[in-house]
Q: What sequence folds into this?
DNA sequence: ACGAATTGTGTTATGTTATTACATATGCTA
DNA sequence: TAGCATATGTAATAACATAACACAATTCGT
């Protein structure tokens, strides 16, 4: 399951690893211009691959991307809290929530391929 | 709590009521051109108001809008399943999920102002 | 009924996010 | 080493969203 990343993929992954907060594709493009990246598709293509490998996550409510925080992979399920003041994101893996949503889906004849859970609000430091 | 909608707000609400599937702002603009709407701000302003009144919901993973399905208002919490084949959306209100997420937030010193839950997948008819 | 304040409208322009299309390059594998 | 799949670079464009400004309609207090 080990995969060797290409140069652009590694550049984008590193940029997201350095970032304290979610980055948009255009943030990343600006950040990586000096590394030779010039156009949006270079960023989006790298992001697509990293998303597929689940090394990064997309935050739908921000149109932005974050590095995957930990080894939730087995659980295939992440939720995020997003502080609207400082921008910091926490990733967590609420198994019971997954179960409940799965239960709803089963009852309602829906097959979920992916689930987005994002809490917007304030962390304690920003209250 | 009864509010009289303005002409543009009513036009947008009606268009979303007629729609079987989520509509983007530009879909709505096209739909409502013959009613005299010409520019994006007219749509977005109406949508902002309707969102504030919770008569419509925004689907973050689609950048699109749906009519609010029922009286979840008291519960202040909605989740959505989105069929990627037919586009149909179901809205539901998983109270226990709300409780679990609230519990996580409390433990982690996070104050959630709003929560997005969206399941992407296939409904039974599209399997 | 009046004027002030608030809310909504119409419009142009622009900002932001994402994709299409196509030509070239790189690396794997038979 | 030829062929194929994957990745790259680039320009152009599509799709989603907001800023700014002038004016109109509505609401509210007196």
A:
């Amino acid at each position: 399951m080990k995969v060797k990343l290409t140069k652009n993929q590694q550049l984008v992954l590193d940029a997201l690893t350095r970032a304290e907060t979610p980055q948009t594709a255009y943030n990343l493009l600006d950040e990586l211009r000096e590394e030779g990246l010039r156009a949006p598709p270079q960023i989006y293509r790298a992001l697509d691959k990293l998303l597929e490998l689940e090394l990064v996550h997309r935050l739908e409510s921000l149109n932005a991307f974050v590095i995957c925080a930990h080894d939730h992979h087995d659980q295939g399920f992440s939720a995020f809290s997003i502080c609207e003041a400082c921008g910091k994101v926490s990733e967590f893996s609420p198994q019971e929530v997954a179960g409940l949503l799965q239960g709803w889906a089963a009852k309602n004849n829906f097959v979920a391929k992916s689930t987005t859970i994002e809490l917007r609000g304030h962390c304690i430091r920003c209250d």
Remarks:
- The mean pLDDT of chain A is 94.
- The first strand of chain A starts at residue 56 and ends at 59.
- Chain A has two domains: 7-67, 73-126.
- Residues 6, 24-26, 40-41, 44, 63 of chain A lie near DNA strand C (CB under 10 Å from a C1').
